[in-house]
Specification:
This protein has a 4-stranded antiparallel beta sheet with strand order 2-3-1-4. The chain has 2 domains: 50-96 and 206-338, no CATH class; 103-200, Alpha-Beta Plaits (2-Layer Sandwich), CATH 3.30.70.3040. It is built from 12 helices and 4 strands. The radius of gyration is 39 Å and the shape is elongated. It has helices spanning 2-12, 23-31, 34-60, 63-95, 113-124, 137-148, 151-155, 178-189, 202-243, 245-253, 258-301, 312-338; strands at 103-107, 129-135, 165-170, 194-199. The two termini are 70 Å apart. The chain is an alpha+beta fold and 345 residues long.
Length: 345
Amino acid sequence: MMACRAMQRNRLRPREPVRRVSSKDARRGASGGAMPFLDKLKSYFQNHSQLFLGTFQRLAKEPVQTLMTSLVVAIALGLPAALYVGVVNLQQLGSRVETTAQLTVFLKKDAADIAVDQLRESLLSEADIISVDYISRQQALDEFRALSGFGDVLEMLDENPLPPVLIVQPVERFHGDLLASETLVVRLKGLALVDDVRLDMKWVQRLQGMLEVGERLAFSLGVVLALGVLLIIGNTIRLAIESRRDEIVVVKLVGGTNAYVRRPFLYTGIWYGAIGGLLAWFLVAAGLQWIDGSVERLAGLYQSIFQLQGLGFSGLLALLITGAVLGLIGSWLAVARHIGSIEPK
């Protein structure tokens, strides 16, 4: 009797559905924790992308404050960038000049024509000299009168004040070798008929020295102003942290970690730096556009086709990356100092 009742209860009990294991579930079970890891990674990147866009939207809601802070960063980045552009353009101008080791040999005024011819032939016989051109005193006076515009003043002089000149062109190995050229200058100065010798390449060497000083000045100014950018962004982020202190306390009360709390502030610093880099590029480009017409007219007076060279796309990328990195470092320093001190009571 009892067995019959048990059989009836088993018939009335609903049967559990048979769960079929799909191939996808089998692969998930076989892969262990691979899928949860991918889900966590996807969630991590989604969180960062939302914070990246969210911080920009927050800055866009305060355009005046954002623009003022970014302009200060732009000025700090734009000053060394403008100095660098100036050095690059001067280097471009200097590279157009032929850096030959041509020597201008000034002879004594009372040098006889026969002695000058003998000296010229003697120099031409040397292996280190290619050519020697002679400019007489009268030729030098005529050339000076034509180029200087002081013809009327020269007519008032009792005698020709200009000495005869030899233009000496050494061999190619002297080109760019200032030490060897100066050795040749010393040797020519020791000749009897020579009064003075000028090396035409020296001004190019001086220009290169000035450009080297300009490069170092641009680098030093960039380092100092980079520290200024760190202080500017760090102070801005500190004020943002203080204004959102209550919000940070609430987030920590519900379990938010310091890493979670500092992310929006880090992205805020990156945005400030990147926007500042973009504005710096526009400021430098606007300055070059403003003086480009004057430079073009000046180059035209010297029959030159020289054109100013700007930062270009590579310069834009450099300023954006530099600004973003400085913004990240500055915000990180501010966050690391102040976030830890804000704790729920």
